[in-house]
Specification:
15 helices; mainly alpha; single chain
Length: 269
Amino acid sequence: MNLLVRLGRLCVDSLRVPLGAPLRHASLVRMLVQREIAARTSGTLLGKLWPLVQPGLQVLGFWFMFGVVYDAGSRGGPSFLQYLMLGMLPWLCLSEVLSRSTGLFREFSVLFARSPFPLEVLPSVMLVIPGIVYGTALVLTTLWMLGVVAALKAVVVIPLLLLWCLPLLLLCAVIGLFVRDFGQVLPFLLTLLMYVTPILYFPDLLPAKARAWMWLNPLADWMAVIHAGLTDAVMPFNSLWRLLGIWLLLLVPSWLLYRRTLLHVRELL
């Protein structure tokens, strides 16, 4: 019984500390976000609009390629163009967060190397800008393709995805601190994972044997849940339970590892 109580407290702490840190240090988080936006847009003509323009150009590029060049909409593809757009934007958000997370401590090392700094705010800072940028892009794309009701549902997709990937972000940050090569390898792994996840193709195009193994890929579950939720298809509850199970399985160990690393991060850097 004591073990279950302790495990429950650890689960609560695993969410309360990293997600509550932005509230306790709101001014610091705001300053860090503004600093990052300035670093991305300083000296550009469009200024602070660039973070939103970039995913917008990606959406237009996909639309031109598959909606104009390949004319996917007239070949049974309400379907394919919508499927691609609704899956690709969450994927780009997840990919950006995980790729950057490997350099989390080094990116902000100037701020905490010689002075006290609440390191628990860094994971949430890493999530803010991708969440706003790709969340806005997904809502506008869904509004364009599926209408107002689907767009209202799309509002929660990116926040839930980022909440789910929080344990992965913590793990990648710790591994990237100890193994610098991991930051070079992860983008290739994510590219490979994109090809084995039904983002660029419908799941039923996979051979039957490959579909039987798809349950091992949690991102395939995410694609199924996103498309079902936004298009009013039948919700795959097996995928929901798998995603929840993976999240609960990783949440406490990843936070404990991250918290333990915080004690030594200044020495390691």
